[in-house]
Specification:
This protein is α/β, with parallel strands linked by helices and 288 residues long. It has 3 domains: 4-64, Multidrug-efflux Transporter Regulator, Chain: A, Domain 2 (Orthogonal Bundle); 77-156, Methionine synthase domain (Methyltransferase, Methionine Synthase (B12-binding Domains), Chain A, domain 1); 166-286, Cobalamin-binding domain (Rossmann fold, 3-Layer(aba) Sandwich), CATH 3.40.50. Helices cover 55% and strands 10% of the residues. The protein contains 12 helices and 8 strands. The strands form 2 sheets. A 5-stranded parallel sheet has the order 5-4-6-7-8. It has a 3-stranded antiparallel sheet with strand order 1-3-2. Strand 7, helix 11 and strand 8 form a beta-alpha-beta unit. Helix 1 (7-14) packs across helix 2 (18-27), helix 4 (77-89) crosses helix 6 (110-130) and helix 5 runs parallel beside helix 7 (136-156). The longest helix is centred in the middle third of the chain and has 21 residues, at 110-130. It is globular, with a radius of gyration of 21 Å. The protein binds cobalamin (B12). The site of cobalamin (B12) has 35 residues, from helix 6, helix 7, helix 8, strand 6 and strand 7.
Length: 288
C-alpha cells in the first residue's frame, strides 16, 4: 500500500479518465496535494474516503494495495461474521482483508467491523481451541493475520486534525492480548482522536509515568486477563488516583473486567464494546 497515489493510478483504479480525476482534484472533490514540482498526488486515505462516500466501483483494487477481489460484491456484516472465523483459522489473509475493506467501503464503521465481525470470530476460535478442534498454531496465525489487516485499515482512516484530542492506552503487565488495544486505537482514531496504543504488557508504574508526562484527554486500559486479583486491585487504584490527579478520565474494558472486579474498582467509564467507548469519547470531545 503506497500512501500517495498519482491521478493516473486512481483513474485506472476506478475506471475513469485521468482528465476527470485531475478535474476532481482541482475542484476538491477528491483530496490532493501538489509535489514540489507541481504534480498532483492523492493520499490513499483521502481516496478511500471518497470511494466510501460516492460508492464509486473499484475496477483495479490492487492499485490501492487492496486484495484483487475487493469491491466485487456487497459485503454484509452477517455474511462476513459467518465467514471470518474460517478465513482467520486458515490464515487466508486476502479473504480477511477483502471482507474488512468491503465492509468499510460499504460504510460500516471500523469499530463495528471489530465489534461485530472480528471479535465474535475470535470468540468462536477460542471455543474451538478449547475443545481441541483447532491447533494452537491456527489460532496464533489468525491473530497475526488480523493484526496486519487492522494496521492496513488504520492507514485508510481519515486524517486527524492538529487540534484532535489525544488518547493513550494499552494492556497491563502479564496481559499479552494485542488485538483489543489496537482495536481501541482504531476506534478512537476513527472518532477523531489522536489515539496511540502504547502496546501490551505495561507495568502499572510506567503507565502512571505516561499519564503524568503526556496528560492525554483520555486514558484507556484493555484488560483481557488478570494474573492476580489481590495484586491488581491496589496497583490499579494507584493508577486511577494518578489519572484523577492529572485530570485524565480512565476508560476500561476487556474480557477480564467481570462485574465482581468492576465493583471493586473506580473508573470514568466502562465499555463492553468499542461502540460504548465511542459514545463516551464523543461526549468528551464535545466538551473540548
Ligand atoms: C488469541 C487468544 C490468545 C493469544 C493472544 C495473542 C495476541 N497476539 O493477542 C495468546 C496466545 C496470548 C493467548 C494465550 C492464552 N489464552 Co487465549 N485466547 C485468545 C482468543 C482466541 C482471542 C482473544 C482476542 O484477541 N479476541 C478478540 C478481541 C478483540 O475480543 P475481546 O477481547 O472480547 O475485545 C472486545 C471487547 O472485550 C472490548 N474491549 C476490549 N478491550 C477494551 C478496552 C476498552 C477501553 C473498551 C471500552 C472495550 C474493550 O472491545 C473488543 C471488541 O469488541 C480468546 C477467545 C476469546 N474469548 O476471545 C482466548 C482465551 C481468552 N484464551 C484463553 C486461554 C485459556 C489462554 C491461555 C491460558 C492458554 C494457555 N494454556 O497458554 C493463555 C493465557 C495467556 C495469559 N497470560 O493470560 C481462554 C480464557 C479462559 C478464561 N476463562 O480465562 C479463552 C477465552 C479461550 C477459551 N475459550 O478457552 N490467547
Amino acid at each position: 500500500m503506497k500512501d500517495l497515489l498519482t491521478p493516473k493510478q486512481v483513474a485506472r483504479c476506478i475506471g475513469v479518465s485521468e482528465a476527470s480525476l485531475k478535474r476532481w482534484c482541482d475542484k476538491g472533490t477528491v483530496p490532493s496535494i501538489r509535489t514540489a514540482g507541481g504534480h498532483r498526488r492523492l493520499p490513499l486515505n483521502g481516496v478511500m474516503q471518497f470511494l466510501r462516500q460516492t460508492g464509486y466501483p473499484i475496477v483495479r483494487p490492487e492499485i490501492l494495495g487492496l486484495p484483487a477481489t475487493t469491491g466485487r460484491g456487497k459485503e454484509t456484516i452477517e455474511r462476513a461474521r459467518s465467514q471470518m472465523r474460517s478465513a482467520l483459522e486458515t490464515g487466508d489473509e486476502p479473504q480477511v482483508a477483502r471482507m474488512v475493506f468491503d465492509l468499510y467501503l460499504a460504510r460500516h464503521a471500523a469499530s463495528d467491523i471489530c465489534d461485530q465481525v472480528i471479535a465474535p470470530a475470535f470468540l468462536d476460535i477460542g471455543a474451538r481451541w478449547q475443545h481441541g478442534e483447532i491447533e494452537v498454531y491456527e489460532e496464533r496465525r489468525g491473530c497475526e493475520v488480523c493484526m496486519r489487516v487492522l494496521y492496513q485499515l488504520r492507514r485508510l482512516l481519515p486524517s486527524l486534525s492538529d487540534s484532535a484530542p489525544q488518547a493513550i492506552g494499552g494492556t497491563l503487565e502479564s496481559d499479552p492480548y494485542t488485538i483489543p488495544t489496537l482495536m481501541v486505537e482504531i476506534a478512537l482514531r476513527e472518532a477523531g482522536w489522536r489515539a496511540d496504543s502504547y502496546g501490551i504488557g505495561l507495568p502499572f508504574p510506567t503507565l502512571c509515568a505516561a499519564i503524568r508526562a503526556v496528560r492525554p484527554r483520555l486514558f484507556w486500559l484493555s484488560v483481557s486477563t488478570i494474573a492476580s486479583t489481590p495484586d491488581f486491585l491496589p496497583a490499579y487504584s494507584k493508577l486511577y488516583d494518578t489519572a484523577v490527579e492529572c485530570g485524565v478520565p480512565v476508560v476500561v474494558g476487556g474480557r477480564a473486567l467481570t462485574e465482581e472486579i468492576r465493583r471493586a474498582i473506580q473508573y470514568s467509564a466502562h465499555g463492553d464494546t468499542l461502540r460504548h467507548l465511542i459514545s463516551f469519547a464523543q461526549t468528551m470531545n464535545h466538551r473540548a
